[in-house]
């Protein structure tokens, strides 16, 4: 697939994602409203909340993602190499230099976020800076810069904020319904009231799932594309291959990562499989819910270049 | 009447195509010039770093005069070629400078005190990343030239390019010996 096709597709996806997200927020708010018998007053509230949520994820999703991962700006002489490598790669890619952040965490990992290449940020864990050598680090940074250049970052960052907000709201609403709404409903509702209440409850239960599905629309394939573009920048596949091998063999879990931010990172930051069981033995259905393709497959694809 | 409309429409479309192609080619050409000045910036940065490096190494390995003088001489030659030489001459002088720097860093391996010196380590990191940047700037330059040359050679862009005298550009080629694997001698 051509790079410019990918960029155009990412733009369309970002817009679609924002609209879908706003609709989802509106639906959830409407569901909460009917659960609490708020009446037609809920419609403008839903619209305002939906627009506000979409607006927030467009303008400040990068800050939210960085804050959620507890990233701090990479200032100081100990990050000189990090800065130098990024500056070199930016020359090769013809990109402005993104803001650089570090996450204090021993697990080696990295992610990129932002609205567009001019408003982009890159974060790596201190574990990554310690455990990888120069060429490996360069490979990983080139992968992240490729996400910036391919405009992958906006899609995934919006997804992060969207999923985070939806999960939060649905969670709160469910608790509220459990402790308040249901009691009231039992006391003075007819069968129709019970029906809408049940429908609202189903919608609330489904919302996090829908949000997760939105996330899956985003990841996976583009990891391969970013790997390929990274090698196009460094012209040295062994660097990224050996970096991915180190990531594969390192089983430390990133403390500041959650289900919501999972798909931002270069490899899944969460504990996979919960043990030493190899990834390949897992069923197709299980793998369908991964945000990242298996590292083995990515390494194999790079070896063929 | 319909015929007139069709003719006008075709002419307008053709003119729009010519304007769009012309502008695209100009943008490509400007990107090449910008990429070229990027290489220049990085080369100058390297010239500026070398005297510091030579001074630092002198403090620990003053008797390695031959290597140190070779680096200084190569730097002077590269700067002279940069100001007056032809592109192949420049490339040769820059590659010679890279080679002497490599032998200087190989030599530093024999001096544990020097290798532990923070100033030396900083300079080494700076020089390594500057060399990377020179390579990356050349790569970006070549990518820009490739895009531009494709743009003026493929049909029907070549008709527009020919009319407005866009000429194809040369790639930046490194010397054959710079492409082989580096051998380190102890």
Overview features:
A: alpha+beta; Zincin-like; 2 domains; four-stranded mixed β-sheet; 11 helices; 4 strands; 66% helix; B: 186 residues; mainly alpha
Order of helices and strands of chain A: HHEHEEEHHHHHHHH
Number of helices of chain B: 7
Structural class of chain A: alpha+beta
Largest sheet of chain A: 4 strands, mixed
What's the CATH superfamily of the largest domain in chain A, by name?
Answer: Metalloproteases ("zincins"), catalytic domain
Strand order of the largest sheet of chain A: 1-2-4-3
Q: How many structural domains are formed by the residues of chain A?
A: 2
CATH architecture of the largest domain in chain A: 2-Layer Sandwich
Say what the CATH topology of chain B is.
Answer: de novo design (two linked rop proteins)
Uncertain residue segments of chain B: 176-182
Helix content of chain B: over 70%
What class would the helix/strand composition of chain B place it in?
mainly alpha
Explain what this protein looks like in three dimensions.
The complex is a heterodimer of chains A (305) and B (186). Chain A has 305 residues and is α+β, with helices and mostly antiparallel strands. Chain A has two domains: 3-68 and 154-216, no CATH class; 73-150 and 219-268 and 282-303, Zincin-like (2-Layer Sandwich). Chain A is 66% helix and 7% strand. Chain A is built from eleven helices and four strands. Chain A has helices at 3-35, 42-68, 80-93, 126-131, 134-149, 152-188, 191-216, 221-234, 237-249, 284-288, 295-303, and strands at 71-73, 99-103, 110-116, 119-125. Chain A has a four-stranded mixed sheet, with helices on both faces. In chain A, strand 3 (110-116) and strand 4 (119-125) form a beta hairpin. In chain A, helix 2 (42-68) crosses helix 6 (152-188), helix 5 (134-149) crosses helix 8 (221-234) and helix 9 (237-249) packs antiparallel against helix 11 (295-303). The longest helix of chain A is centred in the middle third of the chain and has 37 residues, at 152-188. Chain A is elongated and about 65 Å long. The two termini of chain A are 16 Å apart. Residues 272-286 of chain A have low confidence and may be disordered. Chain B is an all-alpha fold. Chain B has a single domain, classed as de novo design (two linked rop proteins). Chain B is 82% helix and 0% strand. Mean pLDDT of chain B is 85; it is low at 176-182. Classes of the chains: A alpha+beta (305), B mainly alpha (186).
């Amino acid at each position: 697939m051509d790079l410019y096709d990918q960029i155009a597709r990412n733009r369309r996806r970002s817009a679609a994602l924002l609209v879908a997200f706003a609709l989802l927020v509106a639906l959830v708010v409407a569901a909460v409203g009917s659960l609490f018998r708020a009446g037609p007053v809920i419609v403008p509230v839903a619209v305002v909340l939906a627009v506000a949520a979409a607006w927030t994820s467009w303008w400040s999703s990068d800050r939210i993602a960085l804050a959620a991962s507890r990233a701090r700006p990479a200032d100081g002489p100990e990050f000189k190499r990090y800065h130098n490598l990024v500056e070199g790669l930016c020359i090769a890619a013809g990109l402005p230099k993104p803001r650089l952040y570090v996450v204090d965490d021993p697990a080696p990992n990295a992610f990129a976020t932002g609205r567009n290449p001019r408003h982009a940020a890159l974060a790596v864990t201190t574990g990554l800076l310690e455990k990888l050598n120069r060429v490996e680090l360069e490979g990983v940074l080139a992968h992240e810069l490729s996400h910036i250049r391919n405009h992958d970052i906006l899609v995934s960052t919006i997804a992060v904020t969207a999923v985070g907000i939806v999960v939060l709201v649905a969670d709160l609403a469910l608790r509220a319904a459990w402790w308040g709404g249901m009691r009231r409903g039992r006391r003075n509702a007819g069968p129709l009231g019970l029906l809408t209440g049940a429908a609202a409850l189903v919608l609330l239960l489904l919302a996090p799932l829908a949000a997760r599905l939105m996330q899956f629309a985003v990841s996976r394939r583009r990891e391969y594309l970013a790997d390929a573009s990274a090698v196009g920048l460094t012209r040295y596949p062994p660097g990224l291959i050996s970096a991915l091998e180190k990531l594969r063999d390192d089983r430390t879990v990133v403390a500041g990562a959650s289900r919501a931010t999972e798909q931002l990172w270069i490899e899944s930051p969460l504990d996979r499989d919960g043990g030493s069981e190899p990834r390949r033995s897992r069923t197709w259905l299980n793998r369908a819910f991964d945000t990242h393709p298996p590292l083995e497959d990515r390494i194999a694809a790079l070896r063929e270049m | 009447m319909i015929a007139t409309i069709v003719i006008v429409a075709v002419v307008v479309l053709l003119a729009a195509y010519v304007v769009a192609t012309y502008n695209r080619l100009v943008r490509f050409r400007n990107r090449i010039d910008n990429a070229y000045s990027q290489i220049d910036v990085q080369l100058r940065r390297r010239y500026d770093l070398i005297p510091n490096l030579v001074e630092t190494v002198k403090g620990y390995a003053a008797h390695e005069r031959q290597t140190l003088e070779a680096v200084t001489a190569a730097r002077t030659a590269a700067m002279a070629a940069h100001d007056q030489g032809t592109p192949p001459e420049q490339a040769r002088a820059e590659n010679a400078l890279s080679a002497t720097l490599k032998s200087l860093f190989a030599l530093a391996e024999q001096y544990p005190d020097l290798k532990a010196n923070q100033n030396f380590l900083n300079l080494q990191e700076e020089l390594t990343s500057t060399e990377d940047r020179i390579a990356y700037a050349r790569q970006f330059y070549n990518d820009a030239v490739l895009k531009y040359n494709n743009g003026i050679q493929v049909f029907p862009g070549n008709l527009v390019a020919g009319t407005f005298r866009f000429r194809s550009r040369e790639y930046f080629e490194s010397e054959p010996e710079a492409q082989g694997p580096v051998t380190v001698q102890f």
